[in-house]
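Q: Sequence in, structure out?
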Amino acid sequence: MAVKKFYAVAKTKDGHKRVVNAFEALKLADDNPWNYPTDKANGVFYDLETELKVSPSHGRTNPKTKKRGQAFFRYFTGEASPLKEQAGSFAYTPELIAFLSAFEAIQKFQIQEDETATMIFPERIAKLQRINFPEGGYSILKFYMKLEETYPYSAYYRFNGVLAIEFYVSGKPSRLKRAELARKGIPLFEAKAFFPKWIQDSFPDEFETPKELAKIAEEIRVTYQERDYKLLGRFKKAHLITPDNERKYHTLKTYEEQCQELEAEIKRLEACFSQKDARVNQLREEIKQAEIRLRHYCEKEEYYKKLEKDNELLKQEKAQLRTERQQLTEQSRHLREERDAAQEETKSLRSRSFWQRLFNK
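A: Exactly. Output:
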């Protein structure tokens, strides 16, 4: 009976093991059938949970829609899964598949618990790691990362240089998985698979082609790597920290807190400086406006002084004209008197007879 599972472990003859999806397995089998055979006797693909051999298979074509279903791994004929009557560790939903495909190649991303955000820079990423418990049983860990660095830097030592991430769509990790990882000193960050609406709306019921999966995975990767989206979740179980890492963590944490205090003080001083600088600029502008007003006042004062000088000259001219007028008035009076005297004399002469005028009598 075929079991629809999307991931399996490829164990090659040279001893290498890696987790591949069904699309990748089909391509490996087509390109290199010598190293990646799919028959029961020589097959190299094993189920993650049961560790039984499986074979990659193309998805079945829907006779109504003519669409091909998602590729999957199936058990060989005559074999049955020991977990046939049990629920698996997780369901291979399109959301989980897309998240796994996106984060297996991510270069950086942020996780956030409450108000605390941490930037993660992975050095190596291993997906779908099987964890066997000492008391029996197992669990599949979605991601196990060896860290290159973190920001803040102290988080690297708080995490013991590693980080496990558990994406879940519905079910959450078991208490046993949390406890076992915590005992091993592996911090487990539990995050619900969250997608922005524009990505969620593009999800198919199944991925028909690897190109369709790669397109959505790339959009998710860019969203969390480049667009400042944060992976929201929680560390539900406190993990053990090695003594050396704990010492380094507290040393760096103290330094980071001091740096934060200094940065806060710098910002306060910068704000204070900005306020004072703004006040200085305001005073400079007020001085500039005062200088403009003073210049206008001086120009007006010069204008008024010129008017006063011109007015004084006009007064002098007025006085001179008044004097000249008086002189002319006096001359005019004398001339009128002379004219009147001449007129009287002429009148008197006209009134005398010829003989009187002749003898001047």
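The chain has a mean pLDDT of 88.
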